[in-house]
Design goal:
Blueprint: H1 2-8, H2 15-32, H3 36-76, H4 81-106, H5 109-115, H6 118-129
């Protein structure tokens, strides 16, 4: 699922797709972390890539939510015109920065590593070579 979402994302994708990728990266990362000792370097490297990507995606999501909240407050509260203007300017800056982050993420090494690459192949090979022991208890 992570790779499927990562492959279709580009700078023009909506913020929700980036957020969905962040959630999926988190699920995969949390599943891999306890297995890092068993699967060694390939698992540790994948966890590192997922964490890096998750952090960048999280920053983008924080900006999107902050912008949405500012616009919501400006639209629903009885505020002075200068304050609404200031909030709108701030919201526009946040939206611009979030778009810049999405563009950076879509071309980033971390996303390329998650989309494809030897990291997946090495991790798959390590998992095939050392399957976890079955619990017979």
């Amino acid at each position: 699922k992570v790779r499927r979402i990562a492959r279709r994302i580009d700078a023009s994708s909506p913020p929700e797709e980036f957020h969905d990728l962040r959630k999926k990266c988190g699920h995969l990362r949390y599943a891999l972390e306890p297995l890092a000792d068993l699967y060694g370097r390939p698992a540790r490297r994948m966890v590192k890539r997922l964490k890096e990507l998750q952090d960048r995606l999280g920053e983008q999501q924080d900006l999107v939510l902050f912008e949405e909240r500012l616009r919501e407050i400006a639209a629903t509260e009885d505020l002075p015109a200068r304050m609404i203007f200031t909030m709108g300017s701030l919201a526009s800056g946040l939206a611009r920065r979030a778009a810049e982050l999405r563009a950076g993420i879509s071309g980033s090494k971390a996303l390329r590593a998650v989309r494809k690459g030897r990291g997946w192949e090495k991790l798959r090979k390590a998992m095939e070579e050392r399957p976890p022991e079955k619990d017979t208890g």
